Amino acid sequence: MQPRVALSVLGSMLLAFSAVAADSVLGTLTVKGKPTPLKHVVAAVQADPDDPDAHWLVVLVSDVAVAEADRTPARLLELSTAGKLKAVRVLWKEGVDRVVAAPYHQALPQSGHLGSAHPSINLDRYDAERFEGFVKSKMLGQDWFFEAHIKAALAHAGVAEIEPALVEEEEASGSAAPKRRAKA
Question: CB within 8 A of 149, min separation 6: which ones?
Fold first, then answer.
């Protein structure tokens, strides 16, 4: 093989590898004291369901790769209930101090619902092409917490589907039972 051809092939391989390696996450979802490494990330900017001029940054971090068709809250809940997925979906409303997160884990009764704790987001880079930064929740006072350092290309499409929140509703017996609330 000619040296130029070999360099060209090597250069093409490196370019292909760097495109695949462009998205990365280093993080952990801890549920009831048991950590799960978060190895996959998908990030998108999506329209607000109530205001098409407003947008949400939606970041899904998970232990396994999630196909595009499986990224809806309903499908994520189905996969996590079956034990095929452990994930956190973090949503930040652009320009507003509102960050919410929903865990997806079969050991959590609140799986697929917005958590009561307020997570935080750090935007090291956030532009039309990429999100780089970290997301995390507080580590005390709940059965689950997470932290993830992320570098991801941004998709721009669709309308954000926001998970329902859990609200405590007192029953006549005095015990609290989780109940779904329709809007985030």
Answer: 25, 26, 27, 133, 134
For residue 17, count CB atoms less than 10 angstroms from its CB and return exposed for 0-12, middle for 13-18, buried for 19 or more. exposed
User: Of 83, 144, 89, 148, which is closest to residue 114 (Cα–Cα)?
Assistant: 89
Place of tokens 């209930």: 81
Amino acid identity of residue 41, one-letter, is V
Residue 9 has pLDDT above 70, yes or no: no
Residue 86 confidence (pLDDT) above 80:
yes
User: How many of the other CB atoms lie within 10 Å of CB of 124?
Assistant: 12
Phi, psi torsion values for 160, nearest 5 degrees: -65, 130
- Residues linked to residue 37 through DSSP beta bridges, in sequence order: 28
pLDDT 10s digits, 116-132: 778 999 999 999 999 99
CA distances to 33, 38, 145 from 29, rounded to whole Å, are 10, 7, 6
161 contacts 70 by C-beta, under 8 angstroms: no
Residues 135-164: what's their mean pLDDT? Answer: 93
pLDDT at 16 over 50: no
**Cβ neighbour number for residue 2 with a 10 Å cutoff:** 7
